[in-house]
Amino acid sequence: MAFKKILWPTDLSENAAQALPFVSSLSEKYQTEVHVLYVLEAIGPFGAWYGEFDHSHVQQMQEIERKKAEEKLEEICSGHLDGCPLYIRHTAIGDPAGEILKLVDKEKPDLVVMATRGRRGRFHFGGVTEKVVKHSPVAVLTIPVK
Known about the structure:
Low-confidence stretches: none
Largest sheet: 5 strands, parallel
Number of strands: 5
Order of helices and strands: EHHEHEHEHE
Mean pLDDT: 83
Strand order of the largest sheet: 3-2-1-4-5
């Protein structure tokens, strides 16, 4: 089976980075397009904040996180994926599993490659990975985290 398009969702953690050698190897072997996705967690409504804090503050915090994530994604892509013909960076805001599945529907990758758990990985198999495996219409290659 040949792959034309791979999706690598990452939370920019060391755990998620363990999938990167697989993504890089597959992209070089099959000369695939690689889509890299980082999902910012939505900041929901909170109760009373100390001082003035409105929706614009939440947007500012998310914008700062998005810019930092894009810098990190550029660093990863240029440093580790320069052997693939095309890499495309995506950022989204919301539920990580839901946003991964939305991008799968939109971009139609042949394969999703992700670590078994991300930054909050206390368990053998992470909740985001489990949801993606259960609901993805395409193959998902899970990389065990050591």
